[in-house]
């Protein structure tokens, strides 16, 4: 990385920079029952990603001096509903 003074700085691989710890929680709940005179097994499942809806920015890259050069926005809470029929 070239500094404003024209000096070339090289990252020190012996002293890496680490971002903060990440904690993610996903969850699901399911339900099933027999329908149509007990001939078809119906299953419903709700999946939720990022259950706690953590929206803090995630550091993605650091400069040689340790300052953060770019950030990533986490994906928001996502709901997925799945329905299956077994004959």
Can you write the helix and strand succession as a string? EEEEE
Major β-sheet strand ordering: 1-2-5
The main β sheet shows up as: 3 strands, antiparallel
Euclidean distance between termini CA atoms:
63 Å
SS strand fraction: 35-45%
User: What structural category do the secondary elements indicate?
Assistant: mainly beta
Radius of gyration: 24 Å
- Could you list the spans in which at least 5 consecutive residues all have pLDDT below 50? none
Helical content, roughly? under 10%
Average pLDDT, rounded to a whole number, is: 89
Shape: rod-shaped
Total number of β-strand segments?
A: 5
Count of individual helical segments: 0
Describe this structure in words.
- With 87 residues, this protein is an all-beta fold.
- It has a domain at 27-86.
- The protein contains no helices and five strands.
- The chain has strands spanning 27-35, 40-49, 58-62, 68-72, 78-86.
- The strands form two sheets. It has a three-stranded antiparallel sheet, with no helix packed on it. The chain has a two-stranded antiparallel sheet with strand order 3-4.
- The model has no long low-confidence stretch (mean pLDDT 89).
């Amino acid at each position: 990385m070239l500094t404003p003074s024209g000096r070339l700085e090289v990252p020190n691989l012996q002293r890496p920079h680490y971002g903060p710890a990440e904690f993610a929680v996903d969850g699901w709940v399911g339900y099933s029952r027999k329908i149509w005179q007990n001939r078809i097994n119906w299953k419903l499942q709700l999946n939720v990603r990022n259950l706690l809806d953590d929206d803090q920015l995630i550091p993605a890259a650091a400069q040689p001096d340790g300052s953060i050069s770019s950030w990533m926005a986490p994906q928001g809470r996502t709901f997925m509903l799945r329905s299956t029929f077994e004959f």
